[in-house]
Input
Amino acid sequence: MPLRLRLRVRVRTLVLAVAASACALGGFVALGRRAAEFGRRADFHHRAADVLHEMGRPGCMDVPKPGEDLFDPALRPAYRYHRDLGRRYSRAARRPWLSVDPGPPPAWAYPDALKEAVGGPPDDTTEHHD
Output
């Protein structure tokens, strides 16, 4: 005699299955949006670092040799700030499920030439750094 399994599918079971799959899908969509936002921020900071690097003379962003005159010493902290934030947001875009430390605010003025080249800084009010 064959063994028969009797499955009872109730409406309650179907509702729970749909709710669970909707929650899982919603989580994946949220992670995708978070990764896209971090990718946008990483692109901005990488472009800003590239512009700042081009604004200085060659070798400006390296450690200066004794007695070397820099084109603009104010560019170095701005360059490092954008370079580090670009790296941080690139890592966050690859791993959007991890929290991101926003880091310290810049201690330098935002150069007008940089605003013209890459636009204003990304809007930090749209995303919370959990």
Remarks:
- The chain is about 55% helix and 0% strand.
